[in-house]
Amino acid sequence: MDAQPTETELEEFRATVRKFAVGAFAADAARWDEDEAFPAKNRQLLAELGYLGLVIPEAYGGSGASIAHASVFLEEIARVCFNTGLICQLALNGPSRAIEVLGNAEQKARWLPKCASGEYMFGIGISEPGAGSAVTDLTTTATEDGDAYIVHGQKAFCTGGAQATHVLVFARFGQASGAKGIGALVVEKGTPGFDIGHPAPKMGGRGVAEVELFFDHCRVPKENVLVPGDPASSKSFRLLMSSFGPERVGNAAMCLGVAQAAFELAVSYSSERMQFGRPICEFQGIQWKVADMATQIHAARLMIRHAATQLEGGFPRVQDATFAKLYANEMVQRVTNEALQIHGHYGYTREFPLERMVRDARGFALGGGTVEILRNTVAALVYGRSFDQRRS
């Protein structure tokens, strides 16, 4: 197992990030949601302070911090501003992580320093209109043509795609079906044949929009192929998916941050709100709600810390990342909903941040693997065998 930071080190780091996040991002958190505006100034500040390169190796201009540091960082940013947290998630656990592990020396030197500096922003194109949870149904193709590959197809739900300078695109190389032949290559914005669709209005995370991506005979140089697909094997696809373990831990950490914020608001409000002549925290019904919320948050934090520190080959183990994301995805929905309930109708109004937290929390259970797919993964681990979800 790789050397990991101590609990004291992580808590000192948490205190630093919490102070920074509150001072830098709290005042405008509601505005990004209200205006459905990308928090560009927040991203610029994160870049200037070196936080976008937190986990990128020092050799490429980053800080070389651990996945555990990244999870604490994401928790504290999401606790204050969900949309800024999404920006950080893309930078810390997005394609740059795959490039660091799977890229060759030239690709790392070309892309990672500018990811760390903030000059580059990478999006990821995996899902398609007809291939969501069934990602191996993807139809986007990469066809060899001299010194390049011709990419043709369409992607959906690319988070931050409108602002991304580069997109890591999963595509099918050669004639194959299922997981066979799937690889990935980097497409730069401005490449002829690459177009970005209009942002689709969504329920939460409204400051970082999701877009469709269109590839019409888009010519991508071979040096941009991160992992070539092999029509005779699914090895490349499995390799690509394994590199996104940190994304699930980061997703869970953001859930934890949103839940923590909602919990703190509920505790504060219930201590001050008077009904029947006394604070509502004196009613057992409220006490039990708060106790359950505290217990669930604590359990999620332990799962996330375990997944972030028990590594194999530099990545969280599949079972640990799956457990953490599955539990945190559902925990944050329960906690934000209960926090809103404690606030009564005030929580339902847009004068309080609870309704925004409820909306933001809901998307976690969809992105990065739905909770249904995660349960399939857990079942496969329990039984020691995979289950084919397709009709025979």
Protein model, in words:
It is built from 14 helices and twelve strands. The chain is an alpha+beta fold and 392 residues long. The strands form three sheets. Strands 1, 2, 3, 4, 5, 6, 7 and 8 form an eight-stranded mixed sheet that branches. A hairpin with a 2-residue loop joins β11 and β12. α4 packs antiparallel against α5, α9 packs parallel to α11 and α9 runs antiparallel to α13. The relative contact order is 0.11. The mean pLDDT is 95.
What does the largest sheet look like? Answer: 8 strands, mixed
Instruction: Give the overall shape.
Output: globular
**Residue share in helices?**
40-55%
Beta-strand level of the residues, as a percent range? 15-25%
Which runs of at least 5 residues are low in confidence (pLDDT < 50)?
A: none
Structural class label: alpha+beta
Query: Would you list the SSEs in sequence order as H and E?
Result: HHHHHHHEEEEEEEEHHEEHEEHHHH
- The CA-CA distance between the termini, in Å, is 41 Å
Mean pLDDT: 95
Total DSSP E strands:
12
- The quaternary organization reads as single chain
Radius of gyration: 21 Å
Number of helices: 14
Spell out the key features of this protein.
globular; 392 residues; single chain; alpha+beta
Q: Briefly, what is this?
A:
The chain contains 14 helices and twelve strands.
Helix and strand arrangement:
Layout (H helix, E strand, L loop, with lengths): L6 H19 L3 H7 L4 H9 L18 H14 L1 H12 L1 H8 L2 H13 L4 E4 L15 E5 L2 E12 L6 E8 L8 E7 L5 E3 L13 E12 L3 E3 L7 H8 L2 H28 L1 E2 L2 E2 L4 H26 L1 E2 L2 E2 L1 H26 L1 H4 L5 H9 L8 H13 L9
Parallel strand pairs: 1-4, 2-4
Antiparallel strand pairs: 2-3, 3-7, 4-5, 5-8, 6-7, 9-10, 11-12
Helix pairs in contact: 1-4, 4-5, 4-9, 5-6, 5-9, 9-10, 9-11, 9-13, 10-11, 11-13, 11-14
